[in-house]
Every structure is written in C-alpha cells, then in structure tokens.
Amino acid sequence: MQFSDLSLEANILKALTENKYHTPTPVQQEVIPVVLEKKDVVVTSQTGTGKTAAFALPIIQSLLKVQDSEKSGKKIKALVVSPTRELAIQIQESFSTYAKYTNLRSTAVFGGISLQPQKDILAKGVDILIATPGRFIDLHKQGSIDLRQLKTLVIDEADLMLDMGFIEDVQKIEESCPRKKQTLLFSATMPETISQLAKSMLLQPEKITINPSGSTSKNIGQLLYYVPKRNKTDLCLHLLRKEINGKIIIFRRTKLGVDKLEQTLIKNGCSVASLHGDKSQNLRNKAIEDLKTNKASILIATDVAARGIDISKVDAVINFDLPNIPETYVHRIGRTGRAGKSGIAFSLCSADETSYIKAIQQILQRPLTIIEDHPFPLAKPKPKKQPNTTSNNSKSRKSTNSKKKKRRWY
Ligand code: AMP
After folding, report:
1. What is the pLDDT of residue 398?
2. What is the mean pLDDT of each run of 10 residues along the chain (410 residues)?
3. Which domain covers residue 101, as residue numbers?
C-alpha cells in the first residue's frame, strides 16, 4: 500500500514524499481511514510505529476543508493532549512537516517556560494546538484557549498520562471541549483505568491494536548480559568501547543513577547528554538537540523523561537497569529500530533483576539472546551443599559392590 491509496490530498502527499515517506506503517494503514470517517478510535500502539502521522495526517486532511483563511483569526479545531513537553514539541514538529503545503497553523504549549509568549501565539490564532495537561489548564483558566470550534480531540500516550498522575486533568480537559467532537485515544498499553477512561469519553469507538512484538521489536537484536551489580559500569564502558558505535540511549531507573553514570562516562572521555525530570526545560531540550545534532553520541535518561521522544537513527539502547514493568522494556527498545530500521538493545541484568527478565520475555513472546562471553560474567549460583546427615534408612545404604568401587575419603 502507498500513501496515495489512502485518499490524502496532493499537498499532504507532496510533504510526505519530500520526507521520503512512501509506505504507510501498519498503524497508519489502519487508523487513517477510520479517522477520515470521523469515527472515535482507541488505538493500542507503541511509539516508534508511526502513530503521530496516523492521527496528524487525517486531521490535517479534514481541516483543509474547514480552515479559516490565513488572515482571519484562526480558531482551534484540533487539540492534542500529550503527557510530556518533549513529546508535545515533537508532535508539533510532525504537524508542521506534514502541513507544510497548507495554511494550517499549529503550536505546542507546555510548562516550564513563561506563559506570555504562548498566550501571544494563541491570541494570533492557531488551527491545531498541542498541549501538556497542566499548561493547557492554566491557559484555559486564563481565557487564552477557545475550544468552541474544536472538531477533534487526541489523547496521546494515555497510559503515560496515568503513570504521571494526569488522568483527572485529562478528564477536565475533555469536559471543557464541545460535546460533539471526534475523540482519538492512543495508548501503548491498555490498563483497566485507561479502558474505563475510553468508555467514558469516546462514543462507540473503533478499537485498533498494533502488536508490539510484531512491529516494534521484530527488527531489534536483543542481547542479555548477566553481570554483578558492582560491575555494571565496567561492562557498560566495555560495550561502549568494543561493541557499540553510533547514537546510543542508556536507560537508568533513577535520576541519581543518570547523574552518576553521566559523570563516569564523561571522565572516560565519552560525549554524553542526559535527561531526567529534575532538569530544567532548557537543559532537557538541549540534551535532545545535542543527540540529534551529534554533539553528543550518548543520551542517558530515565524512562518518564525519554518516553515518546523520537530521536531518529538511534543505533543502540542500553538497559543499564532493567525495568520492573515489562511494557517499559518495550518502550525503551522502541527508541532503536524505529519505522522499519534495524537496531540493537543491550540489557544488563544483575542477580536481583532476574525475575524481570521472565516477565519481559513473556510479553515479547520470545527469549532474549544471552551473551555469556564478556569480561564480567555473573557467577552461577553455587549448588547448595547437602547437609551431612546419615540416614538409618536401609534403602539409602549403598550396596556392598558399590562400596567396594568407591574410595572413601575417610
Ligand atoms: P512515531 O511512532 O509517530 O513516534 O514515529 C516514529 C518515527 O517513524 C518518526 O521518526 C517518523 O518520522 C517515522 N515515520 C512515521 N511514519 C513513517 C512512514 N510511513 N515512513 C517512514 N517513516 C515514518
């Protein structure tokens, strides 16, 4: 199938061709026609599968027919709610790429920077607004957001909204929209709370599920290294020196862990950027920019800070700490091997993390490839010594023949 088979307008197709998009990804093939039919949709799909274009393209197409002229005050007709600032910026960039040959205007609003410039842009008028929940609510309260003309609401990464405590905000946002609208909900996983949210907000939605193991992780080599906890940094340095080239993202569970590893890698001459929730917005943007522009070849990040970020051409992911939630593993490795490209993921597993591997393999429905040949192997647990008890049970006594054959140590 080609994009031209999806009955998209010529000026959208032109932008796609310019960006070397020819074949729609599975999520795009399934979602675009349904959104064009104005139906509500619940989509279970990882990032990295092309889901942004799956909602952005049909929204642009629908808005072409109802757009205001460039000069008259534009009214918001599509709202995308995104859990993180980075993701909001990325979604806005996608909209402006795909809508390059239209008059549609989009902007992203998010916290961490001053309100006034965002108010000014909104006052001039936009067709498509991408917003993080907190900043949306602030701007809405202050009267800077007018949703009366809204046609489509997109809730992106709904499960991450839940993890980050934004569900009530999302409900509030939905309530501030007109009742009659199309709602699209995207989530990487579908926990019960999200299904309930979808039921309460969407009207007879189509349900589309894109299998992660069939799309995201098929073209990713997944290697597993058992290693003592104290040797993880050494093994990581070894992999960076000997095994991995190019752009790398290293995941750590904690902010402190990110900072510690960053210092060690810098001391060892690596070019590193880092990303976690305690960093200012400017520093977070700079870290992503540094990796994108090759100023840094390694990005160290926590899960929440990195989720959804599209840094194309990541060659490898290192799971320095294994995630205790298996879906998080799928999100992490989805940073590499994006949109049909191949990638590689290295997972460092210490003795206390072995139970996570079982859960990860279960969700992937395939085993990871264990690499035993490395300088810091985890010693196999020694078999427990049998207690030295002598049984009186005649059955356990050795036969006279066997006694003769064995040399006794006593
Ligand atoms: P997403 O899942 O929306 O974060 O997209 C993941 C990556 O795939 C982004 O870098 C997109 O630019 C890219 N992409 C999305 N759709 C296509 C397509 N049909 N062909 C090639 N690349 C794509």
Report:
1. 45
2. 90 94 90 96 85 96 78 86 92 96 95 94 95 97 96 94 90 96 93 92 93 58 94 96 90 94 95 88 87 92 75 85 87 73 88 92 84 87 51 44 40
3. 3-211
Q: Map the chain to HEC letters.
A: CCHHHHCCCHHHHHHHHHCCCCCCCHHHHHHHHHHHCCCCEEEECCCCCCHHHHHHHHHHHHHHHHCCCCCCCCCCCEEEECCCHHHHHHHHHHHHHHCCCCCCCEEEECCCCCHHHHHHHHHHCCCEEEECHHHHHHHHHCCCCCCCCCCEEEECCHHHHHHCCCHHHHHHHHHHCCCCCEEEEEECCCCHHHHHHHHHHCCCCEEEECCHHHHCCCCEEEEEEECCHHHHHHHHHHHHHHHCCCCEEEECCCHHHHHHHHHHHHHCCCCEEEECCCCCHHHHHHHHHHHHCCCCCEEEECHHHHCCCCCCCCCEEEECCCCCCHHHHHHHHCCCCHHHCCEEEEEEECHHHHHHHHHHHHHHCCCCEECCCCCCCCCCCCCCCCCCCCCCCHHHCCCHHHHHHCCCCC
Atom of ligand 1 nearest to the CA of 49: 2
Residues 206 and 231 in one domain: no
Whether residue 186 has its Cβ less than 6 Å from ligand 1:
no
The answer to whether position 399 is within a domain reads no
Question: Does the beta carbon of 13 lie inside 6 Å of ligand 1?
Answer: no
Residues 299 and 205 in one domain: no
pTM greater than the 0.85 cutoff: no
Q: How far is the CA of 53 from the centre of ligand 1 (A)?
A: 7
79 shares its domain with 95:
yes
Of all protein residues, the one whose alpha carbon is nearest to atom 19 of ligand 1 is 24
110 assigned to some structural domain: yes
CA of 214 to the centre of ligand 1 (A): 16
* Shortest-distance Cα residue to atom 17 of ligand 1: 50
Domain count, the chain: 2
Residue 21 CA: nearest ligand 1 atom is: 20
Q: Is the CB of 321 under 6 A from ligand 1?
A: no
Residue bearing the CA closest to ligand 1, atom 12: 50
